Amino acid sequence: MPPANFPMKDRVVFVTGATSGIGLETARSLARSGARVVLGVRDPVRGHAVADEIGRAGGNAEVLPVDFVSFDSVRRAAGGLSATQPRLDVLVNNAGVARRRRETTADGHELTWQTNYLGHYLLTRLLLPLLKVSPAPRIVNVASEGHRTGRLEWGDLELARGYGGFRAYANTKLAQVLFTRGPIGYEVWAGIFASQWMKVLTLVVIASLLYHVWVGMRDIWMDYVQPVGIRLVCQVFTIVWLVACAGWAIQVLWRV
Ligand SMILES: NC(=O)c1ccc[n+]([C@@H]2O[C@H](COP(=O)([O-])OP(=O)(O)OC[C@H]3O[C@@H](n4cnc5c(N)ncnc54)[C@H](OP(=O)(O)O)[C@@H]3O)[C@@H](O)[C@H]2O)c1
Predict the structure, then answer these.
(1) Ligand 1 binding pocket includes 19 (Cβ within 6 Å)
(2) Which tens digits make up the pLDDT trace of 180-230?
(3) Can you tell me the distance from the alpha carbon of 82 to that of 90, in angstroms, rounded to the nearest whole number?
(4) CA atoms within 13 A on the CB side of 120
(5) Of 139, 162, 135, which is closest to residue 151 (Cα–Cα)?
(6) What is the pLDDT of residues 16-35, one digit of tens each?
(7) Three-class SS of residue 138?
């Protein structure tokens, strides 16, 4: 149910995956509240059946085909919505899948990743101008508690290695949550830090800090530790510690 302080009457709402489950109930409920619901569906026949049912109940719904396994389809849907609607008040990114076996879309992406995250990310980006026309736009990303077990590996976001159905699903839901919390800042920072030049620069800074630690410690051993044997042990210990620090930095930066 929409909150009481956000009346839905005459708001334009786009719900993806509106032919079953949560998407269908969301579309029905919003239509009952007076919204003009656009049903984002991959099967237009079932979509029209839902639109007819909503119409018979006194609501207002229309169908817009969209299949998230195709970026072209997402672009067409965004173009169609922008051409027919004066504004978009609420975008509900709901359509989702979980696949036991790894499959690749014609766009070359892992299917769960493209359906749940990339496709909706593209849709949202393309619809931003239409959302900005609305006086109070809202974007609702239907994620899942499963996101808590998600682990995004920047080098293997689409799980080319070690694919598991739930693992892939959880990662898409985590990506949705991160997208909801503040996509641009997070992506820009993650992108910069993941770049090779940034890692090399960080390693140079760490190496220079370690070098200065070495120079300082060596002087301390020279000035204050007179027995040569003990001084040697101290210096060897310092070198081992510095090498371990450098190794740890390389491990963290390159995840080796
Ligand atoms: N059910 C739960 O317990 C639960 C819990 C947490 C989060 N969620 C999330 O809630 C959302 C809806 O889940 P649900 O349980 O309602 O699932 P559902 O009943 O299986 O409905 C999924 C909807 O997504 C559509 N869809 C799937 N692939 C699509 C594609 N490539 N292009 C366009 N539409 C596509 C389906 O269309 P078709 O009807 O044509 O198949 C269907 O309308 C998902 O994002 C899911 O991750 C669900």
Answers:
(1) yes
(2) 876 444 555 566 666 788 888 888 888 989 999 988 888 888 888 878 888
(3) 14
(4) 30
(5) 162
(6) 999 999 999 999 999 999 99
(7) strand
Q: Which residue reads 């992406």 in tokens? A: 109
Q: How far is the CA of 168 from the centre of ligand 1 (A)?
A: 15
Task: Give per-residue pLDDT as tens, 32-59.
Answer: 999 999 999 999 999 999 999 999 999 9
Ligand 1 neighbour 50 (Cβ under 6 A) = no
- Nearest residue by C-alpha to atom 44 in ligand 1: 96
- Distance, CA 217 to ligand 1 centroid (Å)? 61
Q: Is 169 a catalytic residue?
A: yes
Contacts 24+ apart (CB under 8 A), 85-88: 85/12, 85/38, 85/130, 86/12, 86/133, 87/12, 87/130, 87/131, 87/133, 87/134, 88/12, 88/13, 88/14, 88/127, 88/130, 88/131, 88/133, 88/134, 88/137
Residue 20 Cβ inside 6 Å of ligand 1? The answer reads yes
DSSP-derived secondary structure for 25-81? HHHHHHHHTT-EEEEEES-HHHHHHHHHHHHHTT-EEEEEE--TT-HHHHHHHHHHH
pTM confidence score:
0.76
Q: Which atom of ligand 1 is nearest to the CA of 23?
A: 16
